[in-house]
Amino acid sequence: MFHLLGGLPHQVLRDLAKKYGPIMHLQLGEVSLVVVTSPDMAKQVLKTHDLAFASRPKLLAAEILFYNGTDIVFSPYGDYWR
User: Fold this and answer.
1) What is the pLDDT of residues 40-80, one digit of tens each?
2) What DSSP element (H or E) covers 47?
3) pLDDT, tens digit (0-9, with 9 covering 90-100), for 15-48
4) DSSP per-residue letters across 2-59
5) Which of 11, 13, 74, 77 can bridge 62 by disulfide, Cβ–Cβ 3.0-4.6 Å?
6) SS3 of 46, please?
7) 26 phi, psi to nearest 5 deg
8) This model's pTM is above 0.85
């Protein structure tokens, strides 16, 4: 994405936020991202929808290299993670 748009990633995201608003949905290949660029919106999103954003994606490499994805970085949100 950044190679297509040119510039540094944080500058590209700033410019996209100016054009499309403080909350954006980006599809980078198979990865779906939600980008929040406003501190006030980030506080609101993380306060009301914290559980939706707390889990990590399930990756095959994480399962192979990091104890079946149960380490602190790749563990899904739940009792084990807490």
Assistant:
1) 988 988 888 877 777 667 778 777 877 776 776 777 777 76
2) helix 39-48
3) 889 999 999 998 888 878 888 989 998 898 888 8
4) HHHH-S-HHHHHHHHHHHH-SEEEEEETTEEEEEE--HHHHHHHHHHSHHHHHSPPP-
5) 74
6) helix
7) -115, 140
8) no
